[in-house]
Amino acid sequence: LQAYERRFPTCPLIPMFVASDTVNEYKSEDEAIHVIERRCKLDIDAPRLLKKIAGVDYVYFVQKNSLNRRERTLHIEAYNETFSNRVIINEHCSYTVHPDNEDWTCFEQSASLDIKSFFGFESTVEKIAMKQYTSNIKKGKEIIEYYLKQLEEEGITFVPRWTPPVACKSESSTSHPRRPVSPAINIPESATKEGLNNKEILNTSSSPSEPTAGTPDDKLDADYIKRYLGDLTPMQESCLIRLRQWLQETHKGKIPKDEHILRFLRARDFNIDKAREILCQSLTWRKQHQVDYILDTWNPPQVLQDYYAGGWHHHDKDGRPLYVLRLGQMDTKGLVRALGEEALLRYVLSINEEGLRRCEENTKVFGRPISSWTCLVDLEGLNMRHLWRPGVKALLRIIEVVEANYPETLGRLLILRAPRVFPVLWTLVSPFIDDNTRKKFLIYAGNDYQGPGGLLDYIDKEIIPDFLGGECMCEVPEGGLVPKSLYRTAEELENEDIRLWTETIYQSASVFKGAPHEVLIQIVDASSVITWDFDVCKGDIVFNIFHSKRAPQPPKKDSLGAHSITSPGGNNVQLIDKVWQLGRDYSMVESPLICKEGESVQGSHVTRWPGFYILQWKFHSMPACATTNLPRVDDVLASLQVSSHKCKVMYYTEVIGSEDFRGSMTSLESSHSGFSQLSAATTSSSQSHSSSMISR
């Protein structure tokens, strides 16, 4: 509040805010309530012609601030006085104490705009209003931080919390004694003299049964932050805790470390919704491609070890791991022709995973948070051969995947000895690189890196590689041309790409309209548990579980010519014979589960009988209009597109004994979630229990 009040009567950081006058003010006797109403004069950034038609140069707003020191809230209401019969603008802001940590401030803001008429310029006025409002929101944080810094420079870093006056009689008192306010709060006399902090006062007034702020679950330890995460503002700390807590409540897989969550928050300027979206997409991607295990399970081909001119080399002056890439000496065309795009991508992923591991090690070694690495790229030898179209295409795809799944891991990129052909390559790849990442690029032409502001500013002289004029022997492979004898045919490369695509515990399946994909599971022990984990990659599907006492016919491949499989590893298997009747030949053991595109589903089914269980993924058709037998317009349009009749799922199933299953046999539930909230009801029957978790 101290910082906020400094915006009046005018604010130099808001040029449109010309002046303000106090028109009404109220203070309660105990000074807990303070209401002030101001008339603000604004110079709206609008076309001169519009101002002339409207007949005004300035616009007036009325702003009412209601401060409640007892409840520790500040509510701000604003509405337009000018043209109030034509345009209605209402804005509401509130500052409140965070429910979990009273050292934090929560801020909420909302606004409404209703344009009844404005001389035929309604759409123009709407655009101006939205532009002005958006600009104010962006500057709001900047302004409050400006005045907070101003207070700190004046030596004001702490403002004592309001306390109710204590009822007492004084000999010098000539007025009526004030009545004590909130008598249930007992504040020691030393608190008013020495100024207890907010947390101590809260603990004084709280009952023992109430949870207090500052526990490890709702607040990060200051030493932990400094040691492993770096400097975080209270707002950034709050965002990290909220996103981590949301993951713990909704995500059933491996929870990423705080450092990794923080990278996604920083990549989206601590916008929780945006960070959550890209983090969830990345977690799904990591699970599908088993990226968490790539360093332990995948061995790079010998061609990569011999001809990929890149490797780790000590660290920079900030303690970041240093990766050296001699791109100019690397035969990108030969590597793509010998290995294919998928193998190159997988190798780059393993490099990034190794980088994350080295960051953790350096954090322990240097005693401070190291969350990114430095990359040194030597372009000596770069020529038009490196601009071979398939090679550039592979590079662009690698950049896209890395940008999406390893944000804020590149601390600095040093590009040395850039030749004349470099601007051509830069023009091709720069649009695919995030703006924040581009700011970390330092480009040196020729031998400029040896002068002031060059390599020595970022890397110790002792570890500058020998090929750059340093004294340190660098063990990075020198690259060179890949022998053409190692080249592979397009068919061989395609098969290799498919093998790498499907080299995972997950399988890919295509689901068509009228052609579901089905998986057969034979159960011998009736106490077994069937578990599944699948992602709906495209379209909407219905998931069913059936039981049959007899085995279905051998699976047959889908013969629909129009539905050819285009994605690597995709397949379609149908087990339930057309002549089988539900209820006679097989039975449904669980209610159907509708799963939307982008959802991730984890679940289990406790079997009651031996026999054959069939897991089915079926195309989900939109229901026709309830009031007519005619199909809806959307259905007709969808039927004209073959692609709309195809869905894709990535799935994994496993059968385990009940004694090995970690869940409770009597409390398994089916529930839906948008990867952020849980809903839906328990699905169970007298024959079985099942559990499913759906997440986007």
Automatic annotation (TrEMBL):
Record's keyword annotation contains Mitochondrion: no
Record function comment: May play a role in innate immunity by inhibiting the antiviral RIG-I signaling pathway. In this pathway, functions as a negative regulator of RIGI, the cytoplasmic sensor of viral nucleic acids. Prevents the interaction of RIGI with MAVS/IPS1, an important step in signal propagation. May also regulate the SLC18A3 and SLC5A7 cholinergic transporters.
InterPro entries membership: CRAL-TRIO_dom (IPR001251), CRAL-TRIO_dom_sf (IPR036865), CRAL/TRIO_N_dom (IPR011074), CRAL/TRIO_N_dom_sf (IPR036273), GOLD_dom (IPR009038), GOLD_dom_sf (IPR036598), PRELI/MSF1_dom (IPR006797), SEC14/CRAL-TRIO_domain (IPR051064)
Designated name of the protein: SEC14-like protein 1
Annotated gene: Sec14l1_0
Residue ranges, annotated region (Disordered): 169-218
Ranges where the CRAL-TRIO domain occurs: 300-476
Gene3D superfamilies from the UniProt entry: CRAL-TRIO lipid binding domain (3.40.525.10), GOLD domain (2.60.120.680)
Keyword Cytoplasm annotated: yes
Coiled coil feature spans: none
Domain GOLD per the UniProt entry, residue ranges: 502-655
Assembly: Interacts with RIGI (via tandem CARD domain); the interaction is direct. Interacts (via GOLD domain) with SLC18A3; the interaction is direct. Interacts with SLC5A7 (via GOLD domain); the interaction is direct.
GO biological process: innate immune response; negative regulation of RIG-I signaling pathway
Entry's localization field: Cytoplasm; Golgi apparatus
GO molecular function, one term: RIG-I binding
Biased composition (Polar residues): 200-212
Listed GO CC annotations: cytosol; Golgi apparatus
Keywords assigned by UniProt, alphabetized: Cytoplasm, Golgi apparatus, Immunity, Innate immunity, Phosphoprotein, Signal transduction inhibitor
PROSITE patterns: CRAL_TRIO, GOLD, PRELI_MSF1
Signal peptide bounds: none
